[in-house]
Write a structure and sequence with these properties.
The structure is a homodimer of 423-residue chains. By secondary structure, chain A is an alpha/beta fold. Chain A has helices at 19-35, 49-52, 57-68, 83-92, 111-121, 138-152, 156-162, 173-181, 201-209, 214-229, 240-253, 269-283, 305-310, 348-365, 380-401, 412-421, and strands at residues 8-10, 72-76, 102-105, 126-131, 163-167, 184-187, 258-263, 291-296, 315-324, 370-377. At the A-B interface, α5, α6, α8, α12 and β8 of A face α5, α6, α8, α12 and β8 of B.
Chain lengths: 423, 423
């Protein structure tokens, strides 16, 4: 594996955007990020994470192995305490798995889902990883109450052996609970915000429980970290994160207001959700920021293709192009009645990539500047590299827009209303 | 059930939009739709479908019952031949079902998915419903080749008994195949486009195979049809589809470019995908049309909430508020360490709806005009009503924008490139 080339950017498709001026601005923004001279600098611990997390790995793997002995592990979290782990787990999940090891809860307030979950777990041998910095967030709090109640009926020893908390080191409701009951616990670092926490225990424990190689994930992230933070990689030509940030900045300045992330496989759908939080929550402030949306190709060509080709020209597209996927040849058909005889013997993935190339060309010609991100294959190492790539590009991109990438003041508004309406 | 009120609209939240001028325009657009005087009028057969489909129901139910005897039924289709059925089936699917009756294929070109599907089906007792007007679309064509090849090895009688085609009455590749092999078949009407076809055999057969009451679905749609097409329901005050269309038109004219459909349960995610095709493909033409996006609440408050509250003010929000859901009370917790003691004893759904109300108020105050659609409960009848409601509102809305709601000229661009790249 050529780690240096885990992510390549093809900017040729970005016709119509002035990336030259944007280039200078993202280079300055990178200095702000690297020097810790911008707002929110106390939350840039994620920059070092791929190296810094190393000492925790033995214990993470040990606890994960213990949790895996249970029939199922319920991961309770929302937002940044949910999306990263789910993105990685789904990227490698077997389609049609009738009994996945990791189940998710606490990420919404749907009664039907919770009831089905409790039925599924009734009498089952399961464990819980509850993830919350504070321990007082409504959704994971509600879900955790159900599970704590259920396990509590089985006795205190069951609680202590079956519940692992990922939370603040010293403070907060979940920390207190963990200490009071002698739960095993992992730390959510103070200098890493939720949406940048996938490479802490927040993401790594559930990912390890799912059987994914977290050392490979981190090795990929570390390779990307070294590449992007190399002082010599100081321009969009030498630093793909700067190239991507410049593309986005130029797009916003040209009046674009929506960025679509196109992926080419359904198992990348949650990665797109993680990406949406990362960029949307980091940049969507004071009237700034592209609206992040996702296309799952080729599915969505048959639903949103028309709008992409011919709707308001406020959109840019970033496409994730995975070079290698397992080969599966399209079979012949007697008589070729379906008019698809030219596809017989080609691999499904080959046709999928050709469809992507055709789509990006068409969208560009239709007035949608495109940015193709190429990764060699989708394994843990390449995915780790990609996660770090997006995080770094996001920090740079938000600083270039002039916003603090690491706060989220707007999310208080509905919470205030909610407390009022709940009395 | 009060059928007349299956959908209520709360316009109070739409602060800042001039819906008065839009009201006159959507009323005119409704006349265009009803009189068949606009472009694409030959494709308005869906207006009558809830009544017209009646004579097909006995045979649809009979074939569905026969298909249900198999362990699994693979539904092969994409776009309008896929999303409607999946939206209805997922709305009622049991979470964590280890062996769903209906599997989907032909909606993308992911090799890993196809390989897993073939492994799952290997030696299994399964049937296929292949859905395509032409029979030559790439994605369903590829998937169908795999299944046809597999079943073909089991002999010709297996093909004839296990494959049901939903296709053109008289022409096309799939019609020829069905006739040549004596397959059972259903018709895709000429006067109903793909994205309006959920209430034809295209949607109804898979839905019936999944065990859902298609007569209740159609009864709800019929009730809504009679309500919306009532000549007396000629203003936004008396016709909720006109109210919704006026909201959307006023939004576009006020410079809004994104419409978010917010749903409050994960099982409504595919309904949002269906809605995205319906409106995006009908309106996204000649620079017109809101970009349709989806929020799954409360999940996405913790990812896109910040952008919604404080990003560029180009967005409006439509929220689906389901009044009744099965009650499930949040348990007490000793000591209330999580600070959520005030929620103990309340139902999860109650808190979910309060979160939605709090969110819409916050978004409106943040400059996002909102439209709340209220349905009494999510059963087949109410869902049928909702599907028709959206279709009717879409036809009106697109005519009011000045576009043909029933064509999709832009989707040819990537197909042309694809044929070139495939040689």
């Amino acid at each position: 594996m050529k780690q240096d080339y885990a992510v390549r950017i093809d900017p040729v498709l970005a016709a119509g955007l002035d990336r030259t001026k944007a280039a200078a601005d993202v280079c300055r923004a990178r200095q702000t990020l690297e020097h810790g001279s911008g707002p929110g600098a106390a939350s840039t611990g994620w920059l070092e994470l791929p190296a810094r997390i190393e000492p925790e790995l033995d214990r993470l793997e040990e606890v994960a192995a213990d949790l895996r002995r249970h029939e199922a592990v319920v991961v309770v979290g929302i937002g940044g305490s949910y999306l990263g782990a789910r993105a990685v787990i789904e990227a490698f999940a077997a389609p049609f798995d009738p009994a996945p090891k990791v189940l998710f809860a606490g990420h919404h307030l749907d009664a039907r889902y919770h009831r089905a979950l409790l039925e599924r777990l009734s009498g089952a041998d399961y464990a819980v990883n509850v993830i919350s910095k504070s321990g007082t967030t409504t959704e994971p709090g509600c879900a955790f109450r159900f599970l704590w109640d259920d396990l509590g009926r089985r006795g205190d020893r069951e609680l202590a052996s079956r519940v692992v908390a990922t939370t603040d080191r010293a403070r907060g409701a979940l920390r207190e609970l963990a200490d009071a009951h002698g739960l095993r616990s992992f730390e959510v670092p103070d200098d890493v915000g939720g949406r940048f926490s996938v490479l802490t225990a927040v993401g790594l424990l559930p990912v390890a429980v799912a059987g994914i190689d977290i050392r490979a994930l981190l090795a990929g992230a570390r390779g990307m970290m070294e590449r992007l933070r190399d002082p010599a990689a100081d321009s969009p030509d030498t630093n793909p994160a700067l190239a991507y940030a410049a593309f986005r900045l130029a797009a916003f300045r040209a009046g674009k207001r929506v960025e679509v992330l196109s992926t080419t496989a359904p198992h990348l759908g949650c990665l797109a959700e993680w990406w949406k939080q990362l960029f949307g929550e980091s940049e969507g402030k004071g009237g700034q920021g592209l609206f992040p949306a996702a296309l799952s190709l080729t599915t969505d060509l048959h639903s949103l293709g028309q709008w992409m080709q011919d709707g308001p020209r406020i959109v840019v597209e970033t496409a994730l192009d995975v070079v290698w996927e397992q080969p599966l040849a399209i079979p012949a058909m007697e008589g070729d009645r379906d008019g698809l005889g030219h596809l017989a013997g080609r691999t499904v993935h080959d046709v999928n990539r050709i469809a992507l190339a055709a789509t990006l060309e068409a969208h560009r010609d239709g007035g949608v500047p495109c940015c193709r991100l190429e990764i060699d294959r989708l394994d843990a190492s390449h995915l780790g590299a990609l996660l770090y790539f997006f995080e770094y590009a996001c920090g740079v991109s938000a600083y270039a827009l002039g916003v603090n990438p690491f706060d989220q003041p707007g999310v208080e508004a509905y919470k205030k209303n909610m407390h009022r309406l709940l009395g």
